[in-house]
Structures are given as structure tokens and as C-alpha cells.
Design brief:
Layout: H1 16-34, H2 36-39, H3 51-61, H4 64-68, H5 72-97, H6 106-119, H7 128-147, H8 151-167, H9 170-175, H10 183-203, H11 206-210, H12 214-230, H13 245-260, H14 269-278, H15 282-296, H16 307-327
């Protein structure tokens, strides 16, 4: 969520369409987690899982320069921004969860913490996404070091193999017998082609190609999204939530549509500042959603898990992040809320 703050034209201007998209995606993820169980059948939007794939695609679109660069310092800094929340948030969650107990089984907690770091899923479930990012970042970098100019071709081939493994339900059949927390590992296979798509879109400089036909590409992207959302265009097969090519295509369409909206024509500094302000901290809000959500559930007003609870989580998360970013502005702990 933290890596989407650059213009599609590679200058210092933030693409406001992307900023708004990542805010929408963050709220969509929260709604999926905290309104989904109660409203799954009532609201079709909660049965569409385009949010996480779109985040993955955009993240790797803006990772392309790091992917092809030999600047190790820059690469280490990027991994650092992922590793700090990945390591520390499970510890914070454990401390909060066990604060009311008189005795704590230290060995059990350490074992669960190790499983969390391996799978991204055991203690703090939502961190499977960050775990996948870290693994794919390292894996893609190794591929680039080994194959250099042919690395993207190798990744495309691996993506095709990944889809074969998914559609043949090999990935599902390997992992479904294992404990639930292994899902975090199984989703790496589902995320890899989407991550590669992000790199490929940046490699071909997609927006330079389509910039003269913005309305046409927005229109067709919306039409494709309409069919994917409303009809079973690509069929059903077993997986772990983000399987199949439809999520990849939906991510591309959302990315293109919001990126091409001509927000750059807005000259009013107050409006620009307002959009930049309300779209901050999506990474921190994503990390905080579980802690805030579980606390809110203790109050009668939020027990039904309606959509207003999701907005409350987002707003409270935003406020907490805005405070702690200032406290840790000169410390690496700021990545917990960034």
C-alpha cells in the first residue's frame, strides 16, 4: 500500500487517480474483512476480490526501476520498508492479545511467531500480502541477477507455468490439506503473475502508448470490468481467493482507468492538497485494521459488522497513523504507519 506515490510519467507529480484508487482499495479490503461475513450474499462487491491483486500489480509497476537497478542501497531500503511492519506488527498484536492473561506460554508464542514469519498468516493474517511482496521482491531480484536482460522473459514463462498450476488445481491440491495458516504460502503462486504484469506494464511504458486515447481506454477498461464483475467469464476452479487470470485483468483495468482520469487538469491547490491529505497512510491503515476492528467489535453498536464499522476503522486508522508518523518521523518505526 505504501509504494504507489509516484506519477505514471516518472516526475514529481503524484497521480491523483492512483492516490484515490489506493484509498478505495484499502477501504474495500477492510470491508471485505469486516463486512464480508455479515453481508457476503447481500452485496456482490464483497464477493469480488480485485482489491489485493490491484495493489500487487501497482506495487510492482512502481518497483520496476528497483528491479532493473544495480543500486543495492535503494533495494535494501525498499525491503526495509516491508520488513519493519512484517516483523514488528505480529509482536505488537501478540502483546495486545496476551496482555490480559496472568501466565503466558513463551515457547508456544515463539513457535507461533516463527510460523507467522514463514507464512505471513499464523498470527496476523493480513500480513500474508506483505510476505508475498517480500518473497517476490527477493525472487525477482535473484532472477534479474542471474539472467539480466532475459529476466523479464523468464518471469513471463514462470507466470504461464503459475497459471497452468492454478487452472489444473495443482496448487490447490498441494496446499488444501495443510493447516489454514499455510494459505499465506499458497497465495504466492496466485500473486506472482500479477506482480509480473506490473513489471511488464512499466517495461512497455504502457501510459506513453495509450496517453492519446485516454477516453477510449477508460471506456473499454470499464466494459471489461463490468463483464468480469457480473458474469462468470473465466469459469470457476479451486484456489485460495486470488486464483485465475480474471483478477489480473481486473487489476489492469482498475489501474488504467484511475491512472488516466485527468486529475492533472485540476489547478486548485486546495483541492489537490485535500486529495493528497485524505489518501495518506493506506499502508498503516491496512496494518491497523485488525487491531482496531477487534476492539470495535466489543461495543454493541459495531457487533453487526456493517459498512459503517469499516469507515470507522479507516478513520481511526488514519488518525492513529497521522499521530505516530509525527512521533517516529526520524525513526524506522514510521514504516509501521506509512
Amino acid at each position: 500500500m505504501n509504494y504507489l506515490k509516484y506519477s505514471i510519467n516518472n516526475n514529481n507529480y503524484k497521480n491523483l487517480g492512483i492516490e484515490i484508487l489506493r484509498m478505495i482499495l484499502c477501504l474495500w479490503v477492510i470491508s471485505f474483512h469486516f463486512a464480508g461475513l455479515k453481508n457476503y450474499l447481500k452485496y456482490k462487491i464483497l464477493r469480488a476480490s480485485f482489491h489485493v491483486p490491484t495493489f500487487m500489480l501497482i506495487s510492482f509497476y512502481f518497483t520496476y526501476n528497483t528491479f532493473i537497478s544495480n543500486d543495492i542501497i535503494k533495494y535494501k531500503k525498499r525491503l526495509e520498508r516491508l520488513l519493519v511492519p512484517y516483523i514488528i506488527w505480529p509482536i505488537i498484536f501478540l502483546l495486545i492479545s496476551n496482555s490480559s492473561y496472568d501466565s503466558i506460554n513463551i515457547k508456544k508464542l515463539i513457535f507461533e511467531l516463527l510460523l507467522q514469519y514463514i507464512t505471513g498468516y499464523k498470527i496476523y493474517v493480513i500480513l500474508w500480502f506483505v510476505g508475498s511482496l517480500i518473497f517476490l521482491e527477493i525472487f525477482f531480484k535473484i532472477i534479474h541477477i542471474l539472467f539480466n536482460k532475459q529476466s523479464l522473459l523468464i518471469l513471463k514463462i514462470l507466470s504461464i507455468i503459475s497459471y497452468l498450476v492454478q487452472y489444473e488445481e495443482i496448487n490447490y491440491n498441494i496446499f488444501y490439506l495443510y493447516p489454514t495458516y499455510i494459505i499465506g504460502v499458497s497465495r504466492i503462486i496466485e500473486m506472482m503473475p500479477i506482480a509480473v504484469t506490473g513489471l511488464c506494464l512499466r517495461n512497455i511504458n504502457i501510459f506513453k502508448t495509450i496517453k492519446n486515447d485516454k477516453i477510449k481506454y477508460i471506456f473499454f477498461s470499464m466494459i471489461i470490468l463490468f463483464f468480469i464483475y457480473n458474469y462468470n467469464v473465466f469459469g470457476n476452479f479451486k484456489g485460495f481467493g486470488y486464483n485465475g487470470i480474471k483478477n489480473n485483468i481486473a487489476g489492469i483495468c482498475l489501474f488504467i482507468s484511475f491512472s488516466l482520469i485527468p486529475f492533472n487538469k485540476i489547478k486548485n491547490k486546495i483541492i489537490i492538497s485535500f486529495i493528497n491529505t485524505i489518501t495518506k497512510y493506506t499502508g498503516g491503515i491496512y496494518y491497523l485494521q485488525v487491531i482496531i476492528g477487534f476492539r470495535l467489535e466489543k461495543y454493541k453498536y459495531f457487533k453487526e459488522r456493517r459498512f459503517y464499522m469499516c469507515f470507522a476503522i479507516y478513520i481511526l486508522g488514519y488518525l492513529i497513523c497521522s499521530i505516530f508518523i509525527k512521533i517516529f518521523k526520524n525513526n524506522k518505526l514510521k514504516y509501521l504507519f506509512y
